[in-house]
Amino acid sequence: MRLTCVLGDITEQRVDAVVNAANSSLLGGGGVDGAIHRKGGPEILAACRDLRNGHLGGGLPTGEAVATTAGELPATWVIHTVGPVWSATQDRTELLRSCYRNSLSVADRLSAANVAFPLISAGVYRWPVDDAVEQAVTTLRRCDTAVEEVRLVLFQADTFELARKRIETA
Ligand code: ADP
User: Which SUPFAM superfamilies match (predicted)?
Assistant: First the structure.
């Protein structure tokens, strides 16, 4: 697996699967989630509703991942995962790592060759950006996967620089 990073918008990635930094409800939110639903159109939300009416009646637990159509996005699938909210008193790092691992397992089941990830939990969920980069890079590197390219998509220039340097030196 090749780990790359780009400065850009997750909704513009031409890949087999893009990962959504969703919330447990799967029914939309801000940040990446809002952008994916806005650009991907109502088909994604309809698929999420079906999941909520089916085996995910209680919502998607933190750290887990599930796939839907990508609607009108230039990708085939959206893999929704729920990052942990940052906590100063509790170590939720394992949950953050699970997001990357479980999303790649779903990608493997879909036979996706390339997958684009946002920096999970680093926005509305307030995870410190440098550690979010560290967890993303180290966890993805350790994954045993048939995915050929994993692309980290960073939305801000300074975060992209952090990721680029971390990937180069790893
Ligand atoms: P979370 O709720 O898991 O914190 P967010 O979507 O709020 O997720 O933010 C996760 C990261 O994605 C943040 O670094 C944020 O700046 C970035 N981000 C926001 N919008 C986009 C986008 N359209 N494409 C890529 N990254 C984005």
Answer: Macro domain-like (SSF52949)
ipTM, interface predicted TM-score of the complex: 0.99
User: Cβ contacts of residue 64 below 8 Å, gap of 6+?
Assistant: 81, 82, 98, 102
Q: What span, in angstroms and rounded, lies between the C-alpha atoms of 11 and 24?
A: 20
Tens digit of each residue's pLDDT (9 = 90 or more) over 21-76: 999 999 989 999 999 999 999 999 999 999 999 999 999 999 999 999 999 999 99
CA distance 162 to 114: 22
Could you tell me if the CB of 118 is within 6 A of ligand 1? yes
Q: Which residue ranges form the domains of the chain, and what is each CATH number?
A: 2-169 (3.40.220.10)
Q: Which residues are catalytic?
A: 33
Name the pTM for this structure. Answer: 0.98
